[in-house]
Specification:
273 residues, Rossmann fold, globular, AB_hydrolase_fold, Hydrolase, Epox_hydrolase-like
Length: 273
């Protein structure tokens, strides 16, 4: 595994690369909101036996930069990932996005369909509107970043994990530490304040209808964050898509069912060889 830091669009982008000597396919992993490459810790060891893997920390999360001048919109995140892929001379990638990362993957498929061979959406965010005007205006208050910090501290990492994981026995100290660590640095709360202002709404139906990239949707049956009915609607709006529902699974499908996720990804990729 190689750890890398590259400056793109005025922010530092951290990514991990796992090169496969005999595979011509490259998988690019995009994590969800309040997460990092850590969320793919069980899936990466499986994926790298089949493909080359690039796992990205989307700013301001993980080890990527937390610049307050960076535009934290989905479109700019997408352009940043596109520039990263171009700098690495990647073509015909398999892009895998979890939750918010799925929405960014959809934006990339919409903006640069020539770059992507297949798109895998793991409990992808969809149909969310832009932040309310009142919240955006509040974000300009001098100490708003402290409000975000206190809100996240009050909810607590264990409580949040119990909301996204179906089988609570999988929650251990390693998992709690991995999801807590990025929030031990205060700079992230300033960047999250900027993110509230910059985040536009999810892709509307008419743009989803224009995406023809083959899309595999993998959903947890008991997802409380992005419920299954969202996945079913997304399946209808993405004309070239397939929906797989994992039993006894919540929102964190890469953590809970990595072997099943790999199985369905391999079958999906082989369909389009």
């Amino acid at each position: 595994m190689d750890s890398n830091l590259i400056t793109l669009n005025g922010n530092e982008i951290y990514y991990e690369s796992y090169l496969h000597a005999h595979s011509k396919k490259t998988v690019v992993l995009l994590h969800g909101f309040l997460s990092s490459t850590f969320s793919f810790r069980h899936l990466i060891p499986l994926l790298k036996t089949e493909f080359s893997v690039i796992s990205v920390d989307l700013p301001p999360f993980g080890k990527s930069g937390k610049s307050t001048s960076y535009i934290y919109s989905y479109e700019n995140h997408s352009m940043t990932i596109i520039k990263l892929c171009e700098s690495l001379q990647l073509k015909d990638i398999i892009i895998i996005g979890h939750s918010m990362g799925g929405q960014i993957a959809l934006n990339i498929a919409y903006l640069r369909p020539d770059l992507i061979a297949q798109c895998v959406l793991l409990c992808s965010s969809a149909y969310l509107q832009k932040s309310k005007r009142s919240l955006i205006m509040s974000s300009y208050l001098p100490f708003f970043h402290l409000f975000i910090k206190r809100y996240l501290e009050k909810s607590g990492v264990e409580k949040n994990l119990r909301n996204v994981v179906y089988d609570h026995s999988k929650i251990d100290k390693e998992m709690e530490k991995g999801y807590l660590e990025p929030f031990l640095e205060d700079r992230i709360f300033h960047a999250l304040t900027r993110m509230i202002r910059d985040r536009e709404g999810d892709l509307p139906n008419e743009k989803l209808h224009e995406i023809h990239t083959p899309c595999l949707l993998i959903w947890g049956e008991h997802d409380k964050v992005v419920p299954l009915h969202i996945g079913k609607q997304l399946h209808k709006d993405l004309k070239n898509s397939k929906l797989i529902v994992l039993k006894e699974t919540g929102h964190l499908v890469p953590e809970e069912k990595p072997e099943e996720v790999l199985f369905h990804i391999k079958n999906f990729v082989n369909e389009y060889k």
